[in-house]
Amino acid sequence: MSLSFSPPSAIDGDANFGFEPGAEPTGLACAWPSLVVDRRSFYAEPSPCPSVLLVTAHETERRVLGSLLRRERCILIDARSGTMALELLLSCRPDLVILDRDLGDMDGLECCRRIKTLRQSEFLPVLLVAAGISEEDEVLAIDAGADEYLSKPLHPQVFRARISALIRQKNAVDRLEEAEHILFALALTVERRDPGTAGHCQRLALYSVAFGMRLGLSKEQLLALHRGGYLHDIGKIVVPDAILYKPGKLTAEDWVVMRTHSARGEEICRPMRSLAPVLPIIRSHHERWNGSGYPDGLAGERIPLLARILQLADAFDALMSERPYKPAYTRKLTVQTLISEAGMGWRDAELTRLFIELPFDELKLAEPFVLGAEAGNDFDASVRNLQYHLAP
Ligand SMILES: [Fe+2]
Fold first, then answer.
1. Is pLDDT above 50 for 342?
2. pTM value?
């Protein structure tokens, strides 16, 4: 793909492209050289001007829409086909996408559908524009995930109002995502305080999602498992170090404190509505099949399925890893121990039988890709790597 960012003249022949002529050239003008070299670093910085990915195959549309957006002091990213838009989307991280219905290489509806399928852009607002809208078109646009649908010719005031509303929507989603990232960072900090458990959260996410895929769970359930891998022990933030890292055995009093971590973890994550599917995992990951676990003493299938899955991944990884109180077990001994513990009523025996049939050699191969992921909690990267390594 040759075009990443069009210089202003390539879009509308106007060297002031992206700004009202004569307006103060904030942000973009100062950063233009580095923008060309490294657009990611530029867009990583907060900008007072929203960035808009404008996708159209038609020069006239580009001029008209570009002119309207210029008046709104938007930073424009130009894509001349649906394929180009999908490539620019992830690297440029725009605040809004404006899609012409006719993109040349694909229908705007198809492009919209693909944008909304990607986890990184599922909440990115998309405005579709087209000539002559029928009721059927509106239904198709809504089905494709478009946030707004405007008919050409555009009314400038309506267009401006819609743009402003969509940018506000994007800002609200960004604030929520920031809060989520803080929680994930907190969870990883809890893990990293104990050098003996390095990589534990990532491996739990990996094993749980792999097992969920084998069980045919939905994408939403897999995502909950992935997040649960990171967040399940976030409640340990309230457990004093003297207990958390005690070299010897915990006393009965210590256990009372330690056992609070699952319920406290749920309390910490409960305000985030987007984490609702993860809460049962966090709260119930120490329940036992025979009802002897905590915090609620749930038994059998009253323990949420996703929590039972994470328990198995948690136990597998703990057994396979060296701990102050035990050496790392071999795979064979780990499997024997899981079967033995299921026999004692600790975990779901049928689920245990299925879990130990996972192709752990292939999972081991997928580990470095997941553990090395820049984002740390990149669900899509995990699924892609698992699909690659677990393919028949
Ligand atoms: Fe735990």
1. yes
2. 0.63
